[in-house]
């Protein structure tokens, strides 16, 4: 608690806490600093950097059709804002500084002609076309699309966000919160970006893990991404290629499963045979923090003690939190500004 007190007292202006140091929390924290330059912003989390779920994500910009906010218009706005944010970041600062890169590749299927098209993605991309007969023959599939999108490598992007945040005076505090009530009195407003942690912190039973197991391999000759239906993917990042994967709904197994490893490896080698020569760097399991609707919402929380706290929630991004963090975080910051009294924004 002393840590919280010290953090909250340092600096002047409105005292803001962001709970969570994954991609959603750090994105929100930097956007708050831009919207409220006089604010004292503290990121509080029990896991940072490589300890977070965000670290293991491949980071491709390719939303599943089940990704959604409260309505379709809002969902599409989050996606468009996010894509524009990463595109601009890449143009202005480049891949080496941020970890954002261009990536193109294929989505194939032998069974479902429609599965290779993504209605949420199509309006955003400059290049999204059916595969040519030659491409389908070369890869041995009946249906396919080719598209050019972006990938954000969190091994580079989280350090980039952290640098930006701390250079602007932001503070980091490692602390496990048993309840958001611990923040009452120390902060004027809180943005809750706790990912799967929101299940406990908000008693939100709709937050569910979707277990994902992957390999990270060294295979620098892989230049394109590949999806086969949604069961197999090969996604080249900056240092490693991600081979996946599993999507186990409501599974709390955090360990690498050898049967999953065999299945992932065999599917990837079958689709792209040169993967057999890849060097395995690590295997990893993460829980996608799924919620039927991503929660970006204001709440005046009141606790049994009678204490109250202004909170904006920003969690439940499932398998799409890297790509959509900018859009939902812009929305969360807008809601925070609406909750603050006028004079505290000056
Ligand atoms: C195998 C796999 C592949 C993926 N691939 C992609 C992809 O290609 N593209 C994409 O966009 N997304 C992908 N994702 C999804 C992505 O990883 C998540 O949506 C994203 O990381 C969620 O970010 P977050 O900041 O909400 O959560 P996290 O990164 O989990 O961060 C949560 C933060 O909250 C903190 N916290 C939680 N509870 C508490 C508490 N009680 N007290 C203090 N701190 C707390 C934690 O310490 C942590 O800092 C993938 C996920 C997996 C598992």
TrEMBL record:
UniProt KW keywords: FAD, Flavoprotein, Oxidoreductase
GO molecular function list: D-amino-acid oxidase activity; FAD binding
Binding residue positions for D-dopa: 233, 288, 319
GO cellular component, one term: cytoplasm
FAD dependent oxidoreductase domain boundaries: 15-333
Cofactor(s) the protein needs: FAD
InterPro entries: DAO (IPR023209), FAD-dep_OxRdtase (IPR006076)
The protein's name: FAD dependent oxidoreductase domain-containing protein
The organism's taxonomic lineage, starting at the top: Eukaryota, Metazoa, Ecdysozoa, Arthropoda, Crustacea
């Amino acid at each position: 608690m002393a840590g919280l007190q010290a953090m909250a007292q340092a600096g002047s202006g409105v005292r803001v806490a962001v709970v969570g140091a994954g991609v959603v929390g750090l994105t929100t924290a930097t956007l708050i600093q831009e919207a409220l330059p006089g604010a004292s912003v503290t990121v509080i989390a029990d896991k940072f950097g490589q300890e977070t779920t965000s670290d293991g994500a491949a980071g491709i910009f390719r939303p599943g059709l089940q990704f959604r906010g409260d309505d379709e218009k809002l969902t599409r706005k989050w996606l468009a804002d996010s894509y524009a944010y990463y595109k601009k970041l890449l143009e202005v600062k480049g891949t080496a500084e941020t970890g954002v890169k261009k990536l193109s590749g294929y989505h194939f299927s032998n069974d479902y002609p429609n599965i290779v098209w993504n209605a949420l993605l199509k309006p955003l991309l400059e290049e999204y076309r059916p595969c040519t007969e030659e491409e389908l023959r070369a890869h041995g599939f009946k249906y396919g699309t080719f598209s050019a999108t972006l990938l954000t490598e969190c091994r580079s992007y989280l350090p980039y966000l952290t640098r930006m945040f701390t250079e602007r005076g932001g503070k980091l505090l490692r602390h496990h919160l048993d309840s958001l009530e611990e923040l009452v009195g120390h902060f004027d407003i809180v943005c809750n970006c706790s990912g799967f942690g929101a299940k406990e912190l908000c008693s939100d039973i709709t937050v569910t893990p979707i277990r994902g197991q992957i390999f990270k391999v060294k295979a620098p000759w892989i230049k394109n991404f590949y999806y086969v239906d949604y069961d197999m993917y090969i996604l080249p990042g900056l240092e490693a290629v991600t081979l996946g994967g599993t999507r186990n709904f409501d599974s709390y197994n955090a360990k690498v499963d050898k049967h999953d490893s065999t299945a992932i490896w065999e599917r990837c080698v079958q689709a792209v045979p040169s993967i057999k020569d890849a060097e395995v760097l690590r295997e990893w399991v993460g829980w996608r923090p799924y919620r039927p609707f991503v929660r970006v919402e204001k709440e005046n929380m009141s606790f049994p003690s009678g204490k109250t706290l202004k909170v904006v929630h920003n969690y439940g991004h499932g398998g799409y939190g890297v790509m959509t963090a900018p859009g939902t975080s812009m929305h969360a910051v807008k809601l925070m500004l609406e909750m603050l009294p006028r004079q505290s924004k000056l």
